[in-house]
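Forwarding the complex inputs:
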Amino acid sequence: MPPTITAFENSPDRGRGQARDMRVRWALEEVGQPYDVRLVSFEAMKAPAHLALHPFGQIPTYEDGDLALFESGAIVLHIAERHDGLLPKDANARSRAIAWMFAALSTVEPPIVELAMAMLFERDKSWYAERLPMLQDRVRVRLGELSRHLGSADWLDGTFSAGDLMMVTVLRRLNTSGLLDEYPAVAAYVGRGEARPAFRRAFDAQLAVFNAASRP
Amino acid sequence: MPPTITAFENSPDRGRGQARDMRVRWALEEVGQPYDVRLVSFEAMKAPAHLALHPFGQIPTYEDGDLALFESGAIVLHIAERHDGLLPKDANARSRAIAWMFAALSTVEPPIVELAMAMLFERDKSWYAERLPMLQDRVRVRLGELSRHLGSADWLDGTFSAGDLMMVTVLRRLNTSGLLDEYPAVAAYVGRGEARPAFRRAFDAQLAVFNAASRP
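Prediction (whole assembly, two chains):
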């Protein structure tokens, strides 16, 4: 039995691969592990059956035999630990790749989500025009640091790893913000991630779900 | 040679154990691993020598032989993987404990930091009174979910783990917000963490640094 993940029945991103199931799909595609998908509605996400899998009522979850996991970072790490292709063999390089996973989620993603939330929910507020540049500048700080770190390298630390997978999915949330264009090295890095065949397969799979749901 | 971590030369939290070196100190105390501390100034954190260790110019870092790591979550996981006491032996329970580490950093911490940032930097803004309840409510959602999950349990998933260590340090950022009092099960959970001898030793060690720095 392949593992089962959950994803939005009707993704609010309209199939642009911004929902967090994309990270898990991509990881499974990189390691060549087939998987099943169970779609959940917004209502079902907050119902007891799903809360038993995910205490915060979100997607994705991951079920494999008697193991149930939540948090995209934890699921990707779990997959990376059990299959070749997402973590280096060298112990130090492995720990550094995991550090980049945490950096993506804990240092780079929060200001990006804060900007995205403001653009979604505070656009009509009196303070929007004054707060927006402040939020954009917080994201620019991180993009500048990432750009300096990357330099002319293809990936964050040697070969492609789960750290790059998480970082690229986090940065893709900026696709429509215009900010990535200000940091060509970071934009090129995201492009390299999106060009990987495993990314394309994962992206097409989540887009097919959205297209099926929105068919009349 | 014991590992060396970095911490603020002069912590902005005035020794209340809110800086992220506290997580690493606590983990090292739980597993009984001695460590050295190198203090860094705000200026030194953004200088090339420190940026070579931490691409985002923050603390803590962790150096052990030829390994250099950054991100408190990654450092705590690295320690937990190499010493007994912070991760269950059972493979599924181990993966779930790691899921709680990610949940602490990726799901629970961001709205707490956002609230803290607004209370620090937006107190004099025209929008503060309108935004504050919105930010508090986002934190309340997570506290409610955590409270429901905890029920009458002592820890998040069986015995104390690195997941609890990360979650307690994240929740402690709310100590002066008044919000924890609204969720007695969560407040008691934080209290259980703070009562652990290893927490006390770590807390006292970071407080001693602050007291030494602020001595006339």
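Chain B has two domains: 4-85+198-214, 91-196.
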